[in-house]
Design goal:
52 residues; mainly alpha; 1 helix; binds zinc ion
Length: 52
């Protein structure tokens, strides 16, 4: 196992953990394009606009 393999595995694990957090409503779902969250949690919060 070389360093690149470890790095790729780390990215995969982080991605999985993030989707689990989103599923658990810990982190609000964010746009894959601009990175801004899709759902407004508080009034006046910035949300994704590229979906419109
Ligand atoms: Zn967006």
């Amino acid at each position: 196992m070389n360093r690149t393999t470890v790095l790729v595995e780390l990215i995969v694990v982080l991605t999985l953990m993030r989707s689990l957090l989103v599923a658990g409503r810990v982190v609000p779902p964010s746009c894959a394009r601009c990175g801004v969250q899709l759902e407004r949690r508080a009034l006046g919060e910035p949300v994704c606009r590229c979906g419109f």
